[in-house]
Amino acid sequence: AQSVTQPDIHITVSEGASLELRCNYSYGATPYLFWYVQSPGQGLQLLLKYFSGDTLVQGIKGFEAEFKRSQSSFNLRKPSVHWSDAAEYFCAVDRTGTASKLTFGTGTRLQVTL
Amino acid sequence: EAGVAQSPRYKIIEKRQSVAFWCNPISGHATLYWYQQILGQGPKLLIQFQNNGVVDDSQLPKDRFSAERLKGVDSTLKIQPAKLEDSAVYLCASSLALGLNYGYTFGSGTRLTVV
Predict the structure, then answer these.
(1) How would residue A86 be classed by pLDDT, with cut points 50, 70 and 90?
(2) CB-nearest partner of A106 from B31, B42, B104
(3) Inter-residue contact A31 to A25 (CB < 8 Å)
């Protein structure tokens, strides 16, 4: 069965510091991987996705993620965090290859201190 | 373009009562999803529609949950009767079609509290 693990429930970083959010997946075939962000009271917004090709994926808002098959990981990074990045971040894997049935991790809540 | 509209934003009901949520997807989006997000967890797919047909409802608790998308546009999710464990945010999402290049757009959700 496919699953996604986000080992960090809560992370606090200072504004301007770098950020890395961890995501590990368990999936038998070629994974299709996503990162979403959810601000309080809002729906989820897609940050970036990986289907194939270059393992370093660029997304919106200055985020990037690197797919590492050998480590079954898809970690999200940002070189310099802004206070507005405080939100909950979800990693997800597609179960079907059509991006139609996402399995989400439990999320990582990011707090940014000024 | 307008986003995915959901109503109500909040709902508080007593257990064993009934409740309904409404979703209006982005115009022209054929695929519609309902997700349940329990506090502290990631969203879990309940049901997926393609136009007015159900594609996947394997995780929908059919003894109490029902959903319809009669004209292939807006959709209603109903819970009858509600249990305490149904307290969650119910998210609706839509996409133009199935396929890796078609992203989801999520609505802001309906927060249900069952007391």
Answers:
(1) very high
(2) B42
(3) yes
